[in-house]
Amino acid sequence: MAYSHNPDIFRWKRLTKTKKPTADKQVQLNNGEINQWMKTVEMASDFAVTEVFSLKKPHSGISSQSMALQRTEQLLDHDEAYGEAQALLSDWMNSKLRLELEMEEEDDVIGSPEKNNPEAMPPAQPVSLDYSSFDDLYSHLAEEEESSAVNNFLQDLMEREVVDSGIVEDLALDSEERDRRKRRDPSLTMEARHRQVRENRARRDVERERLHRERVARRQAREEAQRREQEDERRRRQEARRQEEMVQQEMVLLRREMEERRNLEQLARQMERERVARKTAAKSSLVLQPGPSRSTAQKQQDTERPLRLQQAEIRVQMHNLKFLQRHFSGWYSVLLERRVWMGKAAALCDWRRQLRAWRAWRALVWAGREQREAERTEEELRTQNRRCQVAVESDRRRLLRRCLSDWRLWCRAERERRELLSQQEETRRKMAALINAAATGKLKMMEAHAPELITGLPEPSDQSETIELKGQPGSRPAGPTPSACQGDGQPGAVVLRSLPWQVTRRNAAMSAGELRRARQRGEVGIVGAALWGGRFQHRHASQQQTIAEQRRLLREQQEQIARLQEEQSMMGLRQEAQTAAQIAVPASPGPRGMTSDPKEPRAGRVSRGNDGRSSASRKPAVRQPCRHPTVMAMEERARQRAERRREVEALKRKEEEERLAQLKAAVEERQREEEEEKRRAAGRRREEKRQEREREEEKQWRLAREQQLQTHAQQHYHITLLLRRGLEPWKRLVAQSQANTQSVVSDDDFHF
């Protein structure tokens, strides 16, 4: 710590040694030293706490502490912290002192056998208990307290960690000492004390804030009450001043009237005195003068008296006229003021009545306009809804027509496919019966019935072997079973396609069920794509995709047909070679005919008309006598089948072209409908814009018309107000005042 090398801390030893005899001075000096030492300890403890618990490195202790203790709240906090720290330090020192005393007692009990001796105990008691005065006892207690405090402080300094914790662990200090240091560490207690101080500070801040708010509220309420009271007082003063002014005016008027009345009375008395004086003077002159002079004086008085009376009456009349004029002018001013007030009130009432009527008319006009706009909007919405319903209905009908046309096309294609499958099954059945008859030897019995075999062949009854096509030339092939060779007229029967004549462009690729399923899938996909494209967006893209898919399928079918034709031509050439080899071998006509019968139909089945003609031209001497009616019938049927196949293919191509043309026409129709719909929508939008523009123009015209009418009404109102409330009443009032003045003057003249 900062005070560890301060020699003034232990100055109390020198002072106690030098001034031991005087107990009072010793106590005072010891108290001063203790206070100084406690202050230094407090400062050091504050510095230590700030160093331990602060996050930043503190500044200079004295300056920061002096700056921190400027506010009252900080002073209170510092006092509380100081009191708590002092209490904590006193508790800690008491515990240390108690521990040291216990340790010293144990050392004394164990180390000094003299203290164990009961004879040595009594001398020690007077040393600690025999005191002559209270000052000695107090000085002894003070010395013990100082010594214990110094020892505890030195003990704390000795127990402080000087080296690092890692070095302490390396040195393997005793665990008991570490535990004891941990128990003696007051950081937790100090932290709790600081937390309590912070809580107390927060509580005081809250209480101070509450008190501040209450003071502010009371001050505001007091200011509001004062302001209201001042307003009331000012209003009362103004009312009193106004009443006082009115009283002063009334008093002035009364004084003026009284003064005028007093002047009139004085003037009347003066005139009366003059008249009496003249009478007395006339009487005295008559008494003093002789008769002739009296008569002249009397005459003179008689002539002057009417004049004076007339002058006095004139003055009195003028005074009365002035008085009447003054009162009449006051009455006239009051009358004019009242008339002006009445005119203003009438004008205001008239204006309010007209304003009320105009507002009612405006509300009525606005209500009618809103009603018309609502009806127009309702009609537009109804028309739009009707158009939407018509559009939805037309779209639904268009979809129904398209679906109906697609369904008709599918039904026709399915019907043709079924007819073709039935024809193929019939052909297979007859060919199987013919080959079975040739294999079993029944062909010779049916030679007489050759024309009948052309139209139909009898079905074999009981045959269970199959024909081996790739055997030796002399071997006799067995006929196929009826279950394998013929379908018994059932479209779902399974047919073996191992014979060459069974391999055609139709059945070599797919069976009837496979073809039906493939077509159904293709038609469903096409119809679905068409529906999707027709009902929603991207119709053109879906149609192009459908056309590309159909073209791809056509190319695949053409490639497959060409491949099958090539295979059939190769097979025909091999059969011709085998037939030529069999004919070249010399043998009996019976077995040769029997062995060559199964081969000849096969060669006739596979080979084309051109191949037959070329072989006939190459070997006319060999093939001509060997032609059989069955072979000829088979060739004829093969040619017929080829022709029918070509016709069917041409018909299918034509149907495909028609279907593509229909699809193209449907696409064009949809495009035309979409364009027409777009044109109609554009027309509707133009019509709506035109109607909106017309409504806006009508609204502007109405506003301009209303403004014009309002301007005319305002001008008429001002003119009427000026004529009826301004000039004419003023003229009548002036004329009436002139008439009143004239009548008053005439009355005065009449009185005179």
UniProtKB/TrEMBL annotation:
Keywords: Coiled coil. The keyword Coiled coil applies. Residues 540-567 form a coiled coil. Signal peptide: none annotated. Residues 104-131, 175-242, 275-306, 456-491, 569-642, 666-697 are annotated as: Disordered. Residues 282-300 have a biased composition (Polar residues). The keyword DNA repair does not apply. This is Uncharacterized protein. It comes from Coregonus suidteri.
